[in-house]
Design brief:
With 248 residues, the protein is of the alpha/beta class. Helices cover 49% and strands 11% of the residues. The chain has helices at residues 2-22, 29-51, 56-82, 99-116, 139-142, 145-154, 193-202, 226-233, and strands spanning 87-90, 121-124, 160-163, 182-185, 205-211, 234-238. Helix 4 (99-116) links the parallel strand 1 and strand 2. The longest helix is centred in the N-terminal third of the chain and has 27 residues, at 56-82.
């Protein structure tokens, strides 16, 4: 549609030039010139609309569906060996302070629940200072093993963690105990690849979202099949393939 808009705009411009030449001998061409001007502006509008994102609302919803697909796959993965266990969904601080972010997180959790088969899920985040700026603050700098330990202490009854903000750099020690929760990572965070390999090997990381090198970003997500949508852009890294993945 972008090039269609350009073509329409060119036609309108050529019509204006033609009318400008003919107006000297035929004043009636002025009214026709107005029509060509409208045609030109319509073409300009179409090209700008496409260049600036086209169906912006539809694109945003499409990206959200891909986001929810990650949670659906997390639920499907954890259901295999951890069905029915109490889950803590860790997300960004202040997730419930505005309706847009709150709805997004809640829909992520809904997608997880549907695939996991249980509604026993609590949403929480790491503690941050009162003056923490959610827009400009670096969460990675605040999220240490100490903050994660404090969060886990507040939810000592959870057996499964789904983290949307990854794990801190030195958090491996928190999962060395036999009764420590099992983790699924929607993002890696600051934990090293070497630590992740050890946690995969011990069974404490059940899965992690990886990204396809040659994903087709023109393909739309399917609201009715989030698992299939996941496969368009991502890969599931789990106990079956973690040794073959490049974990940085």
């Amino acid at each position: 549609m972008y090039y269609v808009g350009i073509a329409i705009m060119v036609v309108g411009l050529l019509g204006l030039i033609f009318c400008a030449k003919k107006q000297r001998v035929n004043p009636a061409m002025q009214s026709i010139a107005y029509i060509f001007a409208i045609v030109m502006f319509v073409g300009l509008g179409i090209s700008l609309y496409e260049q600036m994102g086209g169906d912006t609302v539809g694109d945003i919803e499409n990206e959200r569906l891909f986001l929810y697909s990650r949670s659906a796959v997390a639920g499907k993965c954890l259901k295999v060996d951890n069905a029915g266990k109490k889950v803590l969904f860790i997300t960004n601080p202040g997730w419930n302070k505005d309706e847009v972010r709150k709805e997004q997180v809640e829909k992520q959790v809904e997608a997880f629940k549907a695939a996991y088969g249980s509604g026993d899920v609590t949403i929480d985040s790491i503690p941050v200072p009162p003056d923490f700026d959610e827009e400009n603050g670096a969460l990675e700098e605040l999220m240490t093993d100490k903050e994660l330990a404090a969060l886990l202490k507040n939810h000592s009854d959870v057996q499964v963690i789904v983290s949307d903000i990854g794990l801190p750099e030195k958090s491996e020690r928190l999962f060395n105990k036999k009764d420590a929760p099992v983790v699924f990572l929607l993002s890696q965070g600051n934990i090293s690849g070497k630590a992740l390999v050890r946690l995969f090997k011990s069974g404490k990381v059940a899965g992690m979202v990886g990204y396809k090198n040659k994903a087709d970003y023109e393909v739309k997500a399917d609201e009715d099949d989030l698992i299939k949508s996941f496969e368009v852009r991502y890969i599931l890294i789990d106990k079956n393939n973690y040794t073959k993945q490049q974990l940085d």
